UniProtKB/TrEMBL annotation:
<comment type="similarity">
    <text>Belongs to the GSP E family.</text>
</comment>
<dbReference type="GO" id="GO:0016887">
    <property type="term" value="F:ATP hydrolysis activity"/>
</dbReference>
<protein>
    <submittedName>
        <fullName>Pilus assembly protein CpaF</fullName>
    </submittedName>
</protein>
<dbReference type="InterPro" id="IPR022399">
    <property type="entry name" value="TadA-like_ATPase"/>
</dbReference>
<dbReference type="InterPro" id="IPR050921">
    <property type="entry name" value="T4SS_GSP_E_ATPase"/>
</dbReference>
<feature type="domain" description="Bacterial type II secretion system protein E">
    <location>
        <begin position="61"/>
        <end position="331"/>
    </location>
</feature>
<dbReference type="InterPro" id="IPR027417">
    <property type="entry name" value="P-loop_NTPase"/>
</dbReference>
<dbReference type="InterPro" id="IPR001482">
    <property type="entry name" value="T2SS/T4SS_dom"/>
</dbReference>
<dbReference type="Pfam" id="PF00437">
    <property type="entry name" value="T2SSE"/>
</dbReference>
Amino acid sequence: MTGRANPDELAVRVRQRFAAADTPVTPAAIVSAVRAEPDAAVLGDTALLRIADRVHDDLVGAGPLAPLLADPQVTDVLVNGTRVWVDRGEGLHQVAVPLGSVDDVRRLAQRLTATAGRRLDDAAPYADARLPDGTRLHAVLPPVATEGPYLSLRTFRQRPFTLDELVRQGTVPRPVAPVLAAIVAARLAYLVTGGTGSGKTTLLNTLLGLVPATERIVLVEDAAELRPVHPHVVGLQARTSNVEGSGAVGLSDLVRQALRMRPDRLVVGECRGGEVVDLLAALNTGHDGGAGTLHANTPTDVPARLEALGLLGGLPRAALHAQVAAALQVLLQVRRGPQGRLLESVSLLLPEGPDRLVTVVPAWVRGRGLGLAARALGALLRERGVAVPPILCTAWPGSAGPS
């Protein structure tokens, strides 16, 4: 014994001991194993616990990626082979992380996928998984990943933002925050739209937290990401098929099940297929106040996007527009810019023209103020007994809004 412990060597020995013994990996067992090492006697408690945490991350956690996933500023961690990129809300930046060899990264990807009960190997070279802490993982192995393995991890915020927090960080302008609260209070059905990583789930999580505690929220998701701060939330998550190709449960099936669960608010985490038909049918049968997210780069893209999804569910264009006009009222567009994630606009879905096709009419646009639909939005809120927020009252000449 040299009198000085090498933390790297000690961690490797403890990790190898657990791998060889195939014993249960618990924090207490890891601490005991570290203490049992001959050169651990010179370690202080802080150093010993640091090594134990590292071994735990290597055996059951995210290994060298664990510190990044624990950083509250990090939203995405991307691994290309042995190179790591991180997004802290200001775009991607490469960071130095000691991942080891390509084989080490492959083993890490397989272990993380296995913790979610999914398979990742040569026969199934890609997988979507949700880790125990809520982190969303997508992994692809070579040869499908030409320079891989590739890992894409979207971190999970343990506590959703409040509306006040979104205002303070600039996501939602302060005068517009009461408009969002009024939309929820009036039980208007809305979609949060935007591109990938624009903050759709973040905003939806926040708004669901504004739902009265006396109401029951039923969530339907492909991957469970929504965790609103609300006392009565139940969630349904889609299931992929097993290795025999059976056992899949899709979002359309779950929407139909959700309708039998007495939902006050039915929420589809992300509309990406024919389930949009079932959602529209549900919202048209007395289930108002529902919500969901939808990928769309601009608000004007939404009708065409809904048409495409409706066709997947067997709903013709004219019928789709009729359903949307009756079921959905509001679009909340978010985008990702240099300043972070921003609420870009609040719009209404209004039928226009002889064919009564739904068009998107802005009620408020960042940097431009009130739009043509501001008065119509105020009227919708007033019809449902909700006070018109001050910013919308300027669309009512001579009126201070309803009392």
